[in-house]
Amino acid sequence: MADERTPAAPTGGGADIMRMFEGPGEEALEQDQRLLVAATRNAFRELEKLVKNIGLYGAAHKSIDRFRERLFVALTEVLELAPEVEVVLGPYEFTLFDQVIYENPNVERNFIYKFYMDGIRRITFSAGLTYEEINDFVDVLLTDWDDPSLFEDDAVTMLWGKELPHVHYVVIDSFADDTAEDEQHAYTVEGVIERVRTGADSEALQAQSTGGGAGGGRRSRRSIGQIAPVVRLSEVDLDRFEEAPFAMDEAEFLTLKSVIHTTDRETLEKFIEILFKVNLAEAVSTADRQGRIVNLFDRIADLLLSQGRIGDLERLLRKVRRLTGPGGTVIEENLAAIERIFDHWTHAEFVDRVMQGLSDPEFPYTASALAIAGLLNAGAVPHLAMAAGHVTIPERRQALFDLVGRRLAGQERAVAQLLRTVEAAHAHDLVRILRPVCVGDDLTAAVRYAMGSPHEAVRLEGLSLMPHDEAPRHLDLLYKALKDPGRTVRGKALHLLTRVGGPDVHAHIMGCIREREFGSYTLDEKRRYFAAAALTGDARAFFLETFHQGGLFGKGNDAVRHCAAVALGIRLHRDAVPLFEKEIKRRLKHELVADACAWALQHMSCDREERTRQLYDIFFQGELRFAPPDHVGTP
């Protein structure tokens, strides 16, 4: 009867599978080794932050010195624990005591991969390492290898050219030697073939020494035909290949699956390529079957996001983008399939999940998140513009907005629609990137969207989008803005309309002055409206009538009489000079009105340049400024 008890640990032929895939853990290290691993891992985290920030903002940015200092302190702490620390290089990682201390799965922009391909296998840091040596070492990491002047150089020559007495490195002579010495060589195809051939050689030698049956049954290995000359495999060699019995319980399978998911990036990329080809084949089949393939891409991306593997997600997107055709050729069917796949990633939730880490100062994938923003379809640009407004770290926020600005073509209106709902600071950044590209109908739409915002500052930002020479095309918007509840918005619209001028503009401004709400405006705003009316048309009769109303005891009308005097001065109405002089000489006078009369008299006697400066003060400073004596003549 079979034993139905559940085993406490994995058993059977697959019990050794764990030891095949699992390397030594940190628990196998001594206490001082664990401390050294932790300190070195922290130092390489600081190196990663420094490299990424230099890549984003440039080596001259004011924040870079702080990151350089943090790296120096971290490496100094490492070398206080041990006088020498030797780091082993793999294609994608640095290890210490077989523990990964820094990893970068991307081939592009990866100094680990570059060092490895140039033959560097070990780097040793020694006590006495200086701040200048660290900076020189980082400069090598940041080398632009696409520079044609570096065609004949590699990482080894660049390191050799630096003064690095406390940084040593080991370089292999050839990749063949490197592979042969690698303990993993036995598990490669070449390693398997070597083992098979070695076994065959042993059997051949044994047969030659013991002999055969009648007729001299000994057979020389040379007489066996090689069916694969390139790898020197014969039929006897092939006969030695056999399927090994293998058993794996569920726990072992889950562990193996995890190992494959976390280490075999090349396998994942090959799977993506195969999946894409299947998707192309399904394009001629049913939509449901094709949809399942695309959904599988979604599941892969969702898995990477849920695990926080933004770097691997960038790798996935880049791989799909490059599947345009063999040998760099472009096949239209491939492009259409790529767009279909990326369309599934062009939605707000996906973008928000990728970008949410940008507000975390310790987020290590800033460069990857920005790269993904550049890889997504154009339809994702509005979602990126919205996500950028939620980033709280200024440098990253600026970088994401700049990227959105470079990708605005065709998405101007969709991005401008955000002005209806965003806050003032967000709107300010949106207007900054919209201003260079919004023209014609797109400009009109952007201003209308902004004018629909409940925030006065956003409506003001919208009006600031409008160039002065475009104002005549948007008079209806400006007339509406003259009655906006926001004082700053009314002021901006008034200034734009004043520059346009003309009878229609003058009539609208005069209409605003006569409305009841005008009485609630502040003195400086009323003065701007009267000044605008004087500059856009002839309303001297109205100004004179307003100046005369109230008389000696009409103190309640001081503000409008003040404004009327200013307007008459701006119109250079010489017939009003006696009225102004009389008002100034009154024994019982209204100071507010008298000041306006004095200003009007002086304004009429100033040269054109000074009068322009005084008008600027009225519109933008909200005050009457008297000219210096050397600019004043005779009224």
| Shape call | elongated
Tally of strands: 7
Distance between the termini: 123 Å
Helix % is 55-70%
* Spatial strand order of the main sheet: 3-2-1-4-5
Oligomer: single chain
Radius of gyration: 39 Å
Q: How much beta, percentage-wise?
A: 5-15%
Sheet with the most strands, sense and barrel status: 5 strands, antiparallel
- Assign the structural class, choosing from mainly alpha, mainly beta, alpha/beta, alpha+beta, or little secondary structure: mainly alpha
How many helical elements?
A: 31
Mean of pLDDT: 79
Return residue spans where pLDDT drops below 50 for at least 5 consecutive residues.
Answer: 1-22, 179-189, 207-231, 282-286
SSE topology sketch:
Elements: H1 17-21, H2 31-57, H3 64-81, E1 84-89, E2 93-96, E3 99-103, H4 111-117, E4 120-126, H5 131-141, H6 155-160, E5 167-171, H7 175-181, H8 189-210, E6 226-228, E7 233-234, H9 235-239, H10 250-263, H11 265-282, H12 287-306, H13 310-321, H14 332-343, H15 348-355, H16 366-375, H17 381-388, H18 394-406, H19 412-416, H20 424-434, H21 440-451, H22 456-464, H23 475-481, H24 487-500, H25 503-514, H26 523-536, H27 540-548, H28 558-570, H29 577-585, H30 591-605, H31 608-621
Antiparallel strand pairs: 1-2, 1-4, 2-3, 4-5, 6-7
Helix pairs in contact: 2-3, 11-12, 13-16, 15-17, 16-18, 17-18, 18-20, 20-22, 21-22, 22-24, 23-24, 24-26, 25-26, 26-28, 27-28, 28-30, 29-30
